Every structure is written in C-alpha cells, then in structure tokens.
Amino acid sequence: MSTVGKMSRLSNKLLREMNVTAVLKERNQTADEVFHDLGLMIDVEGYIYQPGGHWKPVDCDPKWKVALVVPFRDRIDHLAIFLRHMIPILQLQKLEFSIFVVEQNNNMSFNRAMLLNVGFLEALKLTRYDCYVFHDVDHLALNTNNYYGCDSMPRHFISGDDYWDYRLLYDSLFGGVTGLTTSQMRHVNGFSNMYWGWGAEDDDIYKRVLAKGYFRSRPEGSVGYYNTIHHDHSIAAASPELLCLLEYSYERTEDDGLNSITYQEPDIELTPLFTKISVDIRKQAWKEKWTKCDPLPYATQNHQNDGSEQNGNEMV
Ligand code: UDP
Ligand code: MN
User: Fold this and answer.
1) Ligand 1, atom 23: nearest CA belongs to which residue?
2) Which of the residues 20, 156, 293, 304 has an alpha carbon 20 to 30 A from that of 148?
3) What is the domain range of residue 54?
4) pTM higher than 0.85, yes or no?
5) Contacts of 260 by beta carbon, 8 Å cutoff, 6+ apart
C-alpha cells in the first residue's frame, strides 16, 4: 500500500503542475493513456493500479468499466469502512473500476442528486466509463455475488438491508445503490438538480427511468442484502416542498438534469484509494415554464440552521 500511496502523491503533484484537464484536451487523450505514458501505472496483486483509485484486472478483459460515485460530506468514518469493505469485493468481481467521492464543500442543505450528476460528468472528463454505480457511503454489500456491473435496464442493487430487517421499505425504492450505463444516464437526463435536503431525489430518477420506457432490475433475495452503517436519521420524511417537486417531476425532466447543470470547476484530488471531487454546488435557476411548486425555499437555508443536518459521524 505504501507504493500505491507514493504513486498517488507523485501523480497528484504532476497533475497539479500540469493542469490535467488542459493536458487531456490538448493531447486528446484519456487519463488512462496519460498515466500510461507517464509510467504511473503499477501492478498490484493481479491488478493494474492507477492513482486516484482506478483498478483494472491484469488477466482478463473486464466486462464493465465502472465509475462508483459516492455522494459525500462529513462522513469520513463511514468512508474508511466503505472503502475497506467494497474494494476487495469489486476486485473479486474482476471489474475495472474507479471510485469517485463527490464532496459538497459548502454549508447549504445537502444535494445528493446534484453531486451525483457532477460525479458522472467529471468522471467522463477523465476517461470513458460505460457503467455508473451511484453508492451511498453507508451501504455495505453483504453478498459478493451482487455484481457491480450494469444491466440492459437501470439497476437497483438492494433487495433488503439490516435497517429494515432485510426487506425494502417499499417495492419501488430506487435509492442507496443504483447502476445506470452511460447511455441510460444520458437518456434520462441524469438526476434532477432541484432537490436540496433529505429525500425524494431517488424517487425522482425512478420516475424518469420508467418514463423513458425502462424497467428496473434488481438482484433476487439475499444476493442484494446490505448492512448499513447506522447514523442519526433525524429526518423521517421528505419535506412538502420536495414532495411537490416529485409529484410534478415530469414537467422538468427534459431540462433539469445533466443538460442544464452549472457549477464552478471542482477541485480534483487523486488520493490512493479514490478520486475526490470537491464541489461548491449552488441553487440552479428555476425555469419559468415550470408552473408547479414554489421554487423559493429550495437551497436557501444553511444546513447548520435548518434542522435537517444529520450528523453522520455519530454511530447509533
Ligand atoms: N451524505 C453525506 N453527508 C450528509 C448527508 C448525506 O455524505 O450530510 C451522503 C452519504 O453518502 C449518505 C447518502 O448521502 O449515505 C444518503 O444520505 P443519508 O445516509 O443521510 O440518507 P438515509 O440513510 O437517511 O436514507
Ligand atoms: Mn444512510
């Protein structure tokens, strides 16, 4: 692991000096090709390791090149457990994968969906991924047969978790851990950017998925069981504002998502086990043609004052 750490530090330094995005554009190369040319790939126990937490098996041609995108803020304890648990499983499954931790670096209410859109777009700027798994940091897969590749249909990887006695709270649940191919993600226009605060953003993308004619795929029985890292769930239900957004989500699907998102250039750091994308996301403009729901309350509160903050580092 010390070699891995050294490689990461070296490449991070190089990238800072040379501005990776500019170099990729100028050389018309992917990050993989640049790392290869710079001699920054190393063989670690049957895997080619690349700084920033990218792994590719040596002895086979992986079926999927997966970007695991983790929404994140203030849950460093969870992240350590998550990485320790999930990386060996992904390696066992012989996937090519990278882990992206997308951190919201401001004090506004948390916007999980918008962070996932940022993760999708920023990962694609580095290299071509064909499968995205959007993964809460507090979910730990229990069955190594729960395969983290994508499917012809958008996938919900969870069939039950310990918190709900290894059942699902409701059958149409599409949160926690979901997988879409790059083209499925584009087809549904990604996630809505309008959900600030807890809940409903996962139900929103599920509506998009169904509206585009997909069915949801899900592992059967115990294959899809997860343990969750327990934390304080201080909010039990999404706010009425969010439920309004959800009810009328069809109004916004075509122009609220990947094709409309704006954000300042994120700070990208390659740590040994993941690529950290730190981003200052802001409220997106409300479009006049969206006639339902009052746009004003969203995202205006500071998350420390609005009572919705959940202290994820507190294990319960
Ligand atoms: N999250 C985070 N910091 C926060 C809130 C959420 O990192 O302050 C991320 C984290 O990945 C978490 C996910 O968003 O697992 C979903 O949020 P949370 O766990 O609070 O939702 P719940 O478990 O109540 O569904
Ligand atoms: Mn949680």
Assistant:
1) 233
2) 20
3) 2-301
4) yes
5) 193, 284
